[in-house]
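tool_call: predict_structure(chain=1)
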Amino acid sequence: METGEPVVHLDRLVRWARLLQVPAAQLWFRLPAMIGQGRADEACPVVDQAMEQTTGLGSAVVVGHLRQVALLLRSHVRHCAEVPPLLDRLQHTFRERNWVAAPLPNV
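tool_result:
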């Protein structure tokens, strides 16, 4: 199971993303800032893409980031029509991937 520290040094990530010419729509680490700026409508397609690209990936870090994004999006349910269906899809994703964060059984 993958574990890791929260995303830090966003300035370094942004610099590398620019150097590698990663399209802005694929920069998942920018999601919290986008949502915080009230740009939930722009964040929703990025979240959908992240869920699609990580399907079947057993990563506690990815699931943790998706949970953080879901919490941030909740405050935009009334203001952005894309958010409620996205939160439903995120809940489905969490149910599918709940084994990732589950503790190992005692032997």
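agent: The CA atoms of residues 63 and 75 lie 20 Å apart. Proceeding to next step.
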